[in-house]
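Note to self: user wants both folds in one dump. Writing first protein now.
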Amino acid sequence: MTAALCGAGTTRALSPHVPLTPDEIAADAVACVKAGASIVHIHVRDEQGNNSMATELFVEVVGKVRAAVAAAGLDVVLNLTTSGSKWPEDVRVAHLPVLMPEMCSYDPGSMNWANSYVFLNTPAFLEKLGAVCQELQIKPEIEIFDAGMLGNVEYYLKKGVLKPPCHYQFVLDVPGGMPGNIESLAYLLPKLPQGSTWSITGIGKSHVPMMLAGLAAGCDGLRVGLEDNVFLEKGVHATNAQLVERAVELGKVVGRQIATAEETRQILGLKKHR
């Protein structure tokens, strides 16, 4: 179970509960782990609440998350973002060797995000990020927004930039990407290499339908959080912990065991560095 706490663009205008400061992100991480999350996906924000890829901010946020989780006697897998195409490519990976997370995002292609800007992931960057992940033994979470990205992954597997088995995170219903429906999932799943693991999230209104579809199709994980959806139901703003709690209950309804952080490491083949 992954909790994506704030993302790059969720604002206080969209949700009063979105964590923006380092202390808020750390507190939300603890609340989500207590609720059943085994992975926390982290973006960081500057003092104005804007998305940032500054290494010093990652150091502050991750330091506080690790300290808060440890103080609560808990365990969690940290998954740090590398998204942020307006920043130089070196900046997008600079925090990885400093913080040595167990996972990081890997977006295997570019797209016209929400028909408003280019979500840019150049071939040179993807090769660099793949090399960094292999060197540091960080597991790339391969985020699939559109079908063509699977072809890119296949190419990088053949080239040795990525190593199997891969872990895929389907992020469906981003405008400009694949819609969040059963047809999309039915198209994507048969194309995953044997031995792969996969998780799923839907953006906005497709959040619950994609959780249900993923559980029905045998997903290895669910992703929830205010990065992807701000409502518990129509007109009711959710907290990150509430979204995790609901996903845990859905998993239990269909007889799925909720993995601990240590079990998640075994399922995904992660190396714990710290």
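First done. Writing the second protein, which came from a different request thread.
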Amino acid sequence: MKYLIYALVAISVISCENSETSTTPEKTAKTENVVIVDKIPTPQLTLEQANNLAQLPLHCIETEYPNKMGHVTASPEDQKRPAVQHPVFYGCFDWHSAVHGYWSAVTLLKNFPELEAKEELLQKINHNLTAQNVEVEIAYFNTANNTSFERTYGWAWLLKLQQELDTWDSVEGKKLSTILQPLTDVIVSRYMEYLPKLNYAIRVGEHSNTAFGMAFAHDYAVHSQNDSFKNSIETRARDFYLNDSDCPISWEPSGYDFLSPCLEEVDIMRRILPETAFHNWIKEFLPGIESGVLDIEIGQVSDRTDGKLVHIDGLNLSRAWVLYGLAAQYPQYDNLTETADAHITNTLPNLVADDYAGGHWLGSFAIYALQNAKKK
């Protein structure tokens, strides 16, 4: 997948040129606050980079095999090929990666109208994302053994895709938004049924992390002005996380993490708490962060051909987007953008490995991290 080489080397060169990569905090002699020296330019997504990154969904969304179905089989008739079982989201190795592969394509098309692969991407999207195919996807979610399919990671990315389509001011965006909406409505309904029954938050660094799913779901609830959905998310987030303190971020990462359990809580709580309440909460949750102290190291990957071990590249990118989002909302945390910059600029060049284990999904994480990068 040479496109990853061109895309990510370009990003690396632009981001790291004339820069130092040290992010060691420097304490002043007369204050407890930490002075972060801005040594790493915050990377930005450019048209050139977008043209290269677009090759990922271009290749991915119609690549049916290899495929990890995640499917509960109740009878022999349930054994169907991926493109029959999921005629929209059958590519990119698994359903959720296919969903955020579409999100990547739409995001790049929407933000870069001059994208070189525009017509080819639109052709693939229009071929698969049809009303008839969405009906098949809905029917699958209504089978007795698969009502919780892709809960909640795939659900969250489906809501993010719907939001991206809704806000794409174009003929294509309006058409595709309308087509996808019935499946999105099913996911919203499932989410609202599920959250009141979930007695305990799932605090892991992989797909089922409750805080990650709720953050994306909250974005959609606000966007769609669905107050019932929004209130449901906010109520459960407070139930789960409001009394949390001293999150053991030094324990992170676990070996397969692509999300930070501690930082994902920050991401949902900054969305739902009033400003003063949030600042008071985060001081207890991650002591020292209010002074610019966040004791995390960039995750290292030993083998990018291993589908689990390469998750750590995703962790670095998701950490970056959480920190960019925090600093964008509250400028007093702006010094944390240097930590985010270090994570993203040290990770992007590593994605050049010509292996589908990471290539089928990491481009989406790179695009979302770059989309959230805060200009300094």
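Dump finished. Worth passing along: The chain has one domain: 2-372.
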